[in-house]
Amino acid sequence: MWLDLLFQGCMDAVQSEQVSRTIRILCTALISFVFLIAISSLFLLVFVIEGQGLFRRGIFLNCACRLLAVFEGYREEKEKEAVMKPDIEKTRNYYRNLGPENICDCAYCQNYCARVKTAYPEVARYLDSLGVDIEKPFETSPLEPDENGYLEYCVCQYIVFGSCPKDFTHRIGDVTFGRSDCHPNTGIDEEHFVLDFYPIRLPFEEPESEDIDL
Fold first, then answer.
1. How many Å apart are CA 43 and CA 62, to the nearest integer?
2. SS3 content of the chain, % helix, strand, coil (to 5)
3. Mean pLDDT of the chain
4. Residues 100-133: b if buried by 16+ CB within 10 A, e if exposed
5. Which H or E run includes 34?
6. DSSP 106
């Protein structure tokens, strides 16, 4: 009985949004480990260990197949949970209605908007597949320009309508994507999330006009 309670506790922790990502990963690994050990033990009893009658081997094989089916169902369920579900048309309409007045006009952000699509075409195509316009970021976090005249943006954030699990990850080259839980208030009531990615490195030239704020 205590094993059932432990297993159910781990399942609840994995599915809970209030549990930290680290704990969820550990619980997922523990559940997978227990399943694999149990399945391996049953197959050992059926095919390796001698002295088992045909009837008993049949029972063990049936249990192993059932357990394997349960584990496969659990694995497929976890894969579904880790998939982003964007509302592409709603997202595309949102960005279509964003004007220049909605974009930060500081030199660093304007540099990002002007250069990022050309410098990172694969990232731009991926965002476009979600309905996102890469040239209209919600928020960027630039560092200071380095000695080579390059500016690194450690976080770039975009609004996407739909849903996304906390542990979502995606990677294109050196750029890593994830769902952000730390961002300014979006002011949107409909279901949405903030997608962020990093790092982005772009050339930067100091603006000639002194009226442009950094």
1. 10
2. 50, 20, 35
3. 79
4. eeebeeebbbebbbebbbeebeebbebbeebbbb
5. helix 21-47
6. S
CB 14 within 8 A of CB 27: yes
CB 163 within 8 A of CB 85: yes
Mean pLDDT of 108-124: 96
* Cα–Cα distance measured from residue 24 to residue 27, given in angstroms and rounded to the nearest whole number: 5
How far out from the chain centre does Cα 185 lie?
20
Task: Give tens-digit pLDDT for 118-156.
Answer: 999 999 999 999 999 999 999 999 999 999 999 999 999
Rounded Cα gap, residues 1 and 7, in angstroms: 10
Higher-scoring residue by pLDDT: 203, 34: 203
